[in-house]
Every structure is written in C-alpha cells, then in structure tokens.
Amino acid sequence: xxxxxxxxxxxxxxxxxxxxxxxxxxxxxxxxxxxxxxxxxxxxxxxxxxxxxxxxxxxxxxxxxxxxxxxxxxxxxxxxxxxxxxxxxxxxxxxxxxxxxxxxxxxxxxxxxxxxxxxxxxxxxxxxxxxxxxxxxxxxxxxxxxxxxxxxxxxxxxxxxxxxx
Length: 165
Known about the structure:
Layout lengths: L1 H17 L11 E8 L2 E7 L6 H18 L4 E10 L4 E5 L4 E2 L2 E2 L3 H4 L2 H6 L1 E2 L4 E3 L4 E9 L10 E3 H8 L3
C-alpha cells in the first residue's frame, strides 16, 4: 500500500511539473503580447495539456502587471478578456473576421506554434482548442488605478500578491 501511495504522489508531482511554466511562448506554451494601440496590449497565455485554465488566467494577469511596470506605468485597466478550455471551439465571426479576438489574418503571426499545430480548422472556420488559452486586452495607466473600478489594478500589487516567479 505504501508503494502505491508513493507512486501516486510521484505521478502527481510529475504531472504538476509538466504544466507550462511562466515563460515567454515556446512550442510548449507560454505568454505573448502584442501592442495594439497607445499603451494598449493584448496579452495571451497558452498552457499545455497539464495546465489548468485557472493557471492560464493567473499567468495572464501577472504578465499584464509585469508588462505595465516594464513600460513605466503604475496600473492597468482590463478592457476585455477571453478564455477557452481545452476542447472548446473558437468560432469565426464573419463580420469582423475574428476568432476569439484575433483577426484571421493575424492567426499565422500571433497564434503560438502549439495553437496552430494542435488546433483543427473545420469547414465552418471553427478552431478547436487543444490547450487552455487566456487572453486580456489592457490599457496601461500612469498613477494609481481608478477607485471603485473592479477592472483596474495596481500592477505592483498584483505582482506581489500572485508570486508567480
């Protein structure tokens, strides 16, 4: 019985160790950002099959905070978010030629290699997500975040509370 418990513990540790870590995007996932306007970024984190959607959300929020500080700002406002769990479809919006916030013309430039490699395009322009993906669009702000706005965050506070690194 002890051997079985040890094996289960080791397997659990191995699985946790296999989840995508907080890192710039590689073939196994990670974060990326694209400047889409003045002080405005789209930040994305894609995990692998061992990464939970919650972990992807946490890494996106941390990267938003880190990016804000790197750019000399103090706080950020989350303008928009999108997320998909493994197995969920991303459906093309014909009016805007977008797939969950990414223009189809940008898919080859912006999607991680793992999304392109592991996603499946269907005839109706639907992409099936193979790994969890979390995305946020943020607007960086100088000074403290506006009070009372739940979408506004103090970047340094977020970094201190999340302890990602």
